[in-house]
């Protein structure tokens, strides 16, 4: 039995280390159909939902170097969300699903080795999508360059307008 637990902890540790985030969710009262629907939606967002024994997750999180505060939320019926993509997408799925079905409840999580309170996960869910943030960043980065081009172009454009006005007046 001990060898099986060691193997399960090793597999869980591999999954935890491959993911930049881990969300702990209380799924008490969630039916199997709704649980499967949540899994399907998370899969679409590049995340996975798994159920492990809390003691196994506690040991794997200790080995991964996660904050000790995570152990305080590992009680009751807990499911774990991991993924290799955007944590905001997974948080949005959890938020919309909880709003739709009043379950599950996010207990906490870890993002890049830092503990996240449930309110932190909520804040991540409220962020715009990654694509929108990148577009805003690109617009911010391009604004000074386009302003510079307009400023450099203005003297020549002014001269051209003056010459055109002079030519129109002469004709």
Automatic annotation (TrEMBL):
Function: Forms part of the ribosomal stalk, playing a central role in the interaction of the ribosome with GTP-bound translation factors.
CDD domains assigned: Ribosomal_L10 (cd05797)
Protein name: Large ribosomal subunit protein uL10
GO-annotated biological processes: translation
Subunit composition and interactions: Part of the ribosomal stalk of the 50S ribosomal subunit. The N-terminus interacts with L11 and the large rRNA to form the base of the stalk. The C-terminus forms an elongated spine to which L12 dimers bind in a sequential fashion forming a multimeric L10(L12)X complex.
Keywords annotated in UniProt: Ribonucleoprotein, Ribosomal protein, RNA-binding, rRNA-binding
Recorded GO MF terms: large ribosomal subunit rRNA binding
A single GO cellular-component term on record: ribosome
Similarity comment: family membership: Belongs to the universal ribosomal protein uL10 family.
Domain of life: Bacteria
Database matches in InterPro entries: Ribosomal_uL10, Ribosomal_uL10-like_sf, Ribosomal_uL10_bac, Ribosomal_uL10_bac_type
Provenance organism: Phragmitibacter flavus
């Amino acid at each position: 039995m001990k060898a099986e637990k060691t193997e399960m902890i090793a597999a869980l540790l591999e999954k935890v280390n491959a993911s930049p985030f881990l969300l702990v969710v209380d799924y008490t009262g969630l039916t199997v159909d709704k649980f499967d629907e949540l899994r399907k939606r998370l899969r679409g967002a590049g995340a996975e939902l798994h159920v492990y024994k809390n003691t196994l997750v506690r040991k794997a999180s200790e080995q991964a170097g996660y904050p000790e505060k995570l152990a305080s939320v590992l009680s009751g019926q807990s499911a774990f969300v991991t993924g290799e993509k955007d944590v905001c997408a997974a948080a949005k799925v959890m938020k919309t699903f909880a709003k739709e079905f009043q379950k599950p409840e996010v207990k906490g999580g870890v993002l890049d080795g830092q503990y996240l309170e449930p309110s932190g996960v909520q804040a991540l869910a409220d962020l715009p999508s990654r694509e929108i943030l990148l577009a805003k960043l690109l617009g911010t980065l391009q604004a000074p360059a386009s302003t510079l081009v307009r400023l450099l172009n203005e003297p020549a454009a002014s001269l051209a307008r003056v010459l055109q006005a002079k030519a129109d007046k002469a004709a």
